[in-house]
Amino acid sequence: MNDLADIFAEDTIEAIARDLFPEDVAVGFAFPWGAPEGMLPGEPSGLVRPTQKRLAEFAAGRRAAHQAMERLGVPVRAVAHGLDRAPVWPRGLVGGISHTDTHCLAVVAQDTDYAALGLDLEADEDLPRDLIEVVCTPAERGWLSVQPHEVRGRLARLIFSAKECAYKAQFGLTRQLIGFEAFEITPDLETGQFEATFTQDVLPFTRGACLHGQFAFGGGIILTGMALPGKDAAR
Questions:
Q1: Which residues is 88 bridged to in the sheet?
Q2: In the prediction, which pLDDT does 83 show?
Q3: From-to residues of CATH 3.90.470.20 in the chain
Q4: Of the candidates 90, 87, 112, 122, which has an alpha carbon nearest to the alpha carbon of residue 25?
Q5: pLDDT tier, 1 (very low <50, low <70, confident <90, very high otherwise)
Q6: Is the overall model pTM greater than 0.85, yes or no?
Q7: CB 68 within 8 A of CB 27
Q8: What is the CATH number of domain 4-117?
């Protein structure tokens, strides 16, 4: 774990996130505590009896999203809250929001460039052993078994984060709820890249299709991100 100066260093987390995404994806940051300020009209309307902590986290996500829009050079508009709890991005934009108890990030891009974005932040801590069999497929547990014993829990948390990231990206296109077993994660610890392979059809994705993402560790956080190219992108 890093010391407190690193954990609470805004620039550190922003810089790490910036490196996970292409240059035309904008990143915004906010701390997820304090007064729930900075929301635009209509943004909190989908929340049902939120706690103060939840409201502070929600407001931080919207502040981060607004900052990302500014950096993208587009008008700042409200990011509503859907019945499925997912952000409803303004017309013409795709994005993602994630937070831990200490950091909140948002990413935003034009929907002509990207079909969907995935982003997940997790505390850099071991995944509890009783969750490993719930989260990880047999192949993933096999991969963990050949890693150094002292880092297996941490790498299991990486797999969890990569699945959350991939889930958010696919949900932007499919609007389907799927379980941990729907993806198999293959991390490359040398390059900081991972593949999320569908183990079942989730149309328009078919079994065997791969989503490609990147990951990093820093500031006491595990970060995972992916950007799925849009059909109109010249890439």
A1: 80
A2: 72
A3: 4-117
A4: 112
A5: very low
A6: yes
A7: yes
A8: 3.90.470.20
- The residue to which tokens 């701390």 are assigned: 31
Contacts of 196 (CB under 8 A, 6+ apart): 162, 163, 165, 166, 183, 184, 185, 210, 211, 212, 213, 226
Average pLDDT over residues 142-164: 97
Would strands 114-123 and 221-229 be described as parallel, antiparallel, or unpaired? antiparallel
Q: Dig out the tokens for 224 from the structure.
A: 């995972």
pLDDT tens-digit map of 72-89: 999 999 998 877 778 999
Question: What is the per-residue pLDDT across 177-235, written as a single tens digit (0 to 9) for each?
Answer: 999 999 999 999 999 999 999 999 999 999 999 999 999 999 899 999 999 998 654 43
- Structure tokens given for 197: 């392979």
Do the Cβ atoms of 117 and 147 come closer than 8 Å? no
CA 188, distance to chain mean position in Å, is 18
Angle at Cα 122 formed by Cα 118 and Cα 126, nearest 5°? 135
Q: What is the pLDDT of residue 81?
A: 85
- Residues 6 or more apart in contact with residue 191 via CB below 8 angstroms: none
**Residue-wise DSSP of the chain:** ---HHHHT-HHHHHHHHHHHS-TTSEEEEE-S-SS---PPTTGGGG--S--HHHHHHHHHHHHHHHHHHHHHTS-----EE-TTS-EEPPTTEEEEEEE-SS-EEEEEEETTTEEEEEEEEEESSPPPHHHHHHH--HHHHHHHHTS-GGGHHHHHHHHHHHHHHHHHHHHHHH-----GGGEEEEEETTTTEEEEEESS-BTTB-TT-EEEEEEEEETTEEEEEEEEEPTT---
